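Issue 218. Parser rejects a valid record. Input:
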Amino acid sequence: MSFEFVSEMPEPDEIKAEFPLPEKYREIKKQRDREIADILTGKDDRFLMIIGPCSADREDAVVDYAVRLAKVAEDVKDRVLVIPRVYTNKPRTTGKGYKGMLHQPDPEKKPDLLAGLIAIRKMHIKVITESGLTPADEMLYPENHSFMDDVLSYVAVGARSVEDQEHRLVASGVDIPVGMKNPMSGDYSVMLNSIVAAQAPQMFIYRNWEIKTKGNPLTHAILRGSVTKHGQNMPNYHYEELKLVSDMYLEKGLENPAIIIDTNHSNSGKQFKEQIRIAGEIMHSRNHSDEVRRMVKGLMVESYIEEGNQKIGEGVYGRSITDPCLGWEDSKNLIYSVAENV
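Output the parser choked on:
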């Protein structure tokens, strides 16, 4: 093989022991995990909002954002459960470019994956201890989940990963909700088959062990729109699409059917301000149909302190260095609006 073995990574237990989540916050996480699970299973009729930067690029701004978010989350807690989106891995279509804080804890310096692994764990912990909220992250690299499984309350599998066998099998052993996005092609059967696989018991090799899992009944769907062969964005948040996915979902006989809708990406055509209008339409669809209301359990929104995005090195505090995001005022108002319409 032409691999260059640069350095051996520590075991997850070593990193967790060196950078532990304080006991007080372990109990908070357990409680929030139960609440999120109850929403997805229908025991709790509140709504989920998974909201935050496209990519968590710097600890200070991400923690600042989460603290602001916690104040709004407290105001709406009777109707909406807010989960800060703290995405530390950035999938790249071509494999080139900034791959997130895991790869580059400082986006202006060279990649350092061990430093990145430590930096993202410390950031997740600081988000929890400073805000009292427990975060979501994307499971881009399944082997890395073991380093973060005690600090996350929600995991998403992205559109480029959802067809991958390892992602599906690892999701079957995760004990928090895992959202499976529809693939870039938009094929719902791929997304639903990934949920079938993740909800089933599995055996596979993971971190040099033969692993058995019981299946994850909290695996569910995320609709993020799709891209045609001509590169055209095709949304899938409209009422007719939600009915179609709901019918297909129920035909599969899966446990705890639930849909989260990603208001950005191909649903908005990356026109970040459209997220506000899209969220409003989704809430209207829920209030129009009991079936859609039962199925659609939450929204995923890209939001940061400053709206839009910037190039790496421009240095605007709290502005995305990847995809453009809603700014804080719009985000705060959107959460209040959603809460009023749950």
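Fixed in the parser; the record now loads. The chain has a mean pLDDT of 96.
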